[in-house]
């Protein structure tokens, strides 16, 4: 998406204006700067350093030019053979000190140049000299000549000033860079813990769209503010040792720990584990939620906040229950919840927060009608099934 105007637009305002059009593809990125036009009869002031001018149209042997370090061999070869359009170079001591070339397609009526100057030879007018030579070289092939540069490039801006180019306006290119993968969810929890203003993270469905995730503050709630079924079922299930998979900010682990239980809290997010430890969880670990620790025979296993669907597929959810049964004590209970799946039970998800995103993960939400088939033969039996649509919770007993 491009926008050209007579004056630069504020970066934040411009990104905000186009964010809905690009943010699904990644982080909005703004690039661009002033655009100039000029004629082939440029007459810049002489350079402060004597230079030899060679061009793609001159009588010389271009293959003898030494390749600048910023060009690779293949690209430099295409330039010299003419595949990249007209060019002109200013040589100092047989080295290319400045180069003006045609980075975009040469059109019948128009051409745009790009200028590079070796940092050792900047501020001497060599870039402007090479540009004037390029204009003369291409002037008989195109009526309209253009030059543009990034708004942060002061060296290129000096070329325009030295040549007294006429500015047409500003050109901006807005693109979407892939979201950098980081522990975005852990960063959101840490921000809330530290009292930093915390925007609501975004929950992205692969190929589906973006909505709001739960605010991090939700995971710091006191027991009295939990969902009614959590307040009812967790006290019934409380026992030790307990395994809290996907512990988040540690709310359930802390509640159990405060009642004398030995609790191991596991989360795949290092930031979440840091939050758990900072809040007082004694045993908090970073780990794979699909590969539970086996250093205890767990008497209580928690899969709260939708984590019954972490297996990623129907069979994956069953395998997770089977692995947990293998790690459980004979009298163990498992308390977990999920969301009524609707028309798309298996989805890819990630959380986006402050310009970064978690890796994608697969979630297989469990329809109410599927609960019996899910549990059968996994080493568990259903003790309670609480339905509070769109959520529903299972209390399972080791069989």
Automatic annotation (TrEMBL):
Matching CDD domains: AdoMet_MTases
Domain Methyltransferase: 243-304
InterPro entries: Acyl_CoA_acyltransferase, Methyltransf_25, SAM-dependent_MTases_sf
SUPFAM superfamilies linked: Acyl-CoA N-acyltransferases (Nat), S-adenosyl-L-methionine-dependent methyltransferases
Domain of life, per lineage: Bacteria
Name of the molecule in the record: Methyltransferase domain-containing protein
Source species of the chain: uncultured Acidimicrobiales bacterium
Biological classification of the source: Bacteria, Bacillati, Actinomycetota, Acidimicrobiia, Acidimicrobiales
């Amino acid at each position: 998406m491009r926008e050209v105007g007579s004056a630069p637009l504020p970066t934040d305002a411009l990104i905000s204006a186009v964010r809905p059009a690009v943010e699904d593809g990644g982080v909005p990125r703004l690039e661009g700067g002033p655009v100039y036009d000029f004629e082939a009869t440029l007459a810049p002031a002489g350079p402060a350093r004597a230079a030899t001018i060679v061009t793609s149209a001159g009588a010389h042997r271009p293959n003898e030019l030494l390749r600048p370090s910023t060009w690779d061999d293949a690209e430099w070869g295409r330039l010299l053979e003419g595949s990249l359009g007209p060019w002109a170079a200013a040589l100092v001591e047989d080295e290319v000190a400045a180069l003006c070339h045609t980075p975009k397609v040469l059109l019948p009526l128009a051409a745009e140049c790009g200028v590079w100057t070796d940092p050792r030879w900047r501020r001497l007018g060599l870039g402007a000299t090479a540009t004037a030579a390029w204009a003369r070289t291409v002037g008989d092939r195109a009526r309209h000549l253009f030059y543009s540069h990034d708004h942060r490039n002061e060296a290129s801006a000096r070329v325009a000033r030295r040549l007294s180019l006429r500015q047409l306006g500003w050109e901006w290119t807005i693109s979407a860079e892939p979201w950098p993968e980081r522990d975005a969810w852990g960063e959101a929890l840490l921000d809330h813990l530290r009292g930093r203003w915390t925007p609501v993270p975004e929950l992205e469905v692969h190929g589906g769209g973006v909505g709001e995730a739960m605010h991090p503050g939700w995971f710091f709630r006191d027991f009295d503010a939990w969902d009614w079924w959590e307040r009812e079922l967790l006290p019934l299930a409380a026992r030790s040792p307990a395994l809290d998979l996907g512990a988040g900010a540690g709310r359930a682990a802390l509640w159990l720990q405060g009642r004398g239980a030995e609790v191991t809290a596991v989360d795949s997010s290092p930031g979440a584990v840091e939050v758990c430890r900072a809040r007082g969880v004694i045993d908090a670990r970073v780990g794979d939620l699909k590969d539970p620790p086996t250093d205890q025979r767990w008497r209580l296993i928690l899969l709260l906040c939708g984590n019954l669907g972490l297996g990623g597929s129907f069979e994956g959810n069953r395998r997770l229950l089977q692995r947990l049964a293998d790690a459980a004590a004979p009298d163990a209970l498992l308390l977990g919840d999920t969301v009524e799946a609707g028309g798309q039970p298996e989805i890819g998800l990630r959380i986006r927060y402050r310009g970064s995103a978690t890796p994608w993960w697969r979630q297989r939400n469990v329809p109410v009608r599927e609960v019996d088939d899910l549990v059968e033969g996994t080493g568990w039996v259903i003790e309670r099934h609480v339905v509070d649509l769109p959520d529903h919770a299972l209390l399972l007993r080791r069989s």
